[in-house]
Every structure is written in C-alpha cells, then in structure tokens.
Amino acid sequence: MSIFDEYERGLEKLLSLIPKTASDYLDVLTLQTSLHENIEDARLYGDTPELKATRIRILAQLNRITVNVTVTFSFNDLCSGKGPAKTHQRSNSQPPDKNKIKKVFISHSSVDKDFASRLCTDLQNTGLPVWFDMWDIKVGESIVKKINQGLEQSDYLVVVFSPDSANSAWVQQELDAALMEQLSKKNITVLPLLLRECEIPILLRSIKYADFRYHYQSGLEELLKVFDPQNLSLAIS
Questions:
Q1: Which region holds residue 127: left if phi is over 0, alpha if psi is between -120 and 50, else beta?
Q2: How far, in Å, CA of 100 to CA of 16, rounded?
Q3: CB 20: neighbour CB atoms within 10 A?
Q4: What is the pTM (predicted TM-score) of this model?
Q5: pLDDT in tens, the chain (237 residues)
Q6: Helix axis angle, 143-152 relative to 169-183, nearest 10°?
Q7: Which of 72, 58, 99, 56 is nearest to 17 (CA)?
C-alpha cells in the first residue's frame, strides 16, 4: 500500500467517526478534496517542495481534527489502520485524559522560519499536533486572534531562542502570554529551545533547554523526551 493509499484509508476512517451534521465533517471533506488535488498534481508534475509544503499543512489540519475527535489517536494512526471503533469526542464534563496527544505551539523569529518549518515537520511526523504560524494563519485572518487561539489550544509552547528571537516582539508577546497562563494555573508548559547563543529571559534560566546549537538530531531527540512516548512514532528521517 502506497503512502497515498494510507492517506485515503485515514480519511475514510476519520469521516466514519464524525457525524455528518458536524462542522468537522465538512472540513474533512474539503481537506480531502485538497489532498486529492495535491496528490494528483504530484503525480502529474512531480512532488515539488511547494506541493510537499501544502500537503504538510493539509495533514496538520487533519491531525488536529483527528485528535479533537478521538482524543488519543493521531491521523497517522488512522492511516496505519489504528483508531477507535467509534467517536470519543470531548465533553466539558469529562476529566482531562492523561494519555491524550499533546498540542505544541512553536514560537520563533521570522529569520528562523526555515529551522522552525523543519522542526514542525518532524514533530508532525511523530503524530504531534503542531501550531505553526506559516500553516495556521491564512491571508486575511487576524494574526493576533489566531495566535491567541493557538496558545489557548496548546499544551506546550516551544520557544526557539536565537539572537533574532530575543529581539522579536511577537516571540516576546507569545512567551508573556504563556507565562501568564502558567501563573493562572492553566495547562501550558514553556519549553525553551536554544538554536543559537543568546541571552535567555531571566524567568526561564532555571529551566533546562533543548540544545540545537551543534547538532539538530540530538536536540530533537532531547525535545521529544518531554512528550508521552506511547503516543509518538519516533522514526524521524
């Protein structure tokens, strides 16, 4: 079975878990059409970097819907034949599920966007839902509103520290918001990531950071240890 066939199996499984009257059902149908068009273009014209980037964004959205619907499964799980027999959508009356897949918000300077994109792709490939501005903010949408929504829905804030991020107003605002969430006892954890040598904010200096300064793979493995290994596929290319 090809990877494209696995995507189709995952889509069919996901659609079977969602009531046809739910908004998520229509969203999945739209994403299914977009994915079919992307795959067809890849077959006709070759799988260009632009098509791969678009496909990653589509899969990221499918993964978020899958986690919301099933709580403990990723879209990758559905593609591989795993998943619940029926929907397990969350209810406000349900206690937090300790085994649910954690959502990760990536905060970075625009100068470090290539690194951030690679990191998001690798995290996404493990089955982790990722919030990444280049994937989640569309033309015409409010940047501030989308960032706030992303933070509210995330369990972790990964901050990519570098001399450029230290001078980024957006990174500082995202970090301030997450720290306020922690102070108000909401469930978001700040994970510092050191890409290049720079000054770490005082409040985070006592927290161990994932060190990406010298070797990407070792830094990634260090970061992945934070997340529940039973929910992740740790094969990173």
A1: left
A2: 20
A3: 8
A4: 0.53
A5: 577 788 888 888 888 888 887 778 888 888 888 888 888 888 888 888 888 878 877 887 788 788 778 777 888 888 888 877 654 444 444 444 545 567 888 888 888 889 989 998 888 887 788 888 888 878 777 777 777 777 777 888 888 888 877 667 767 666 666 666 554 445 678 888 889 888 877 767 777 888 999 999 888 888 888 875 544 444 333
A6: 40
A7: 72
List C-alpha distances in Å: 207 to 84, 181, 183, 190, 225: 37, 17, 16, 9, 15
**Contact (Cβ atoms closer than 8 angstroms) between residue 93 and residue 155:** no
Q: Are 55 and 124 in contact (CB under 8 A)?
A: no
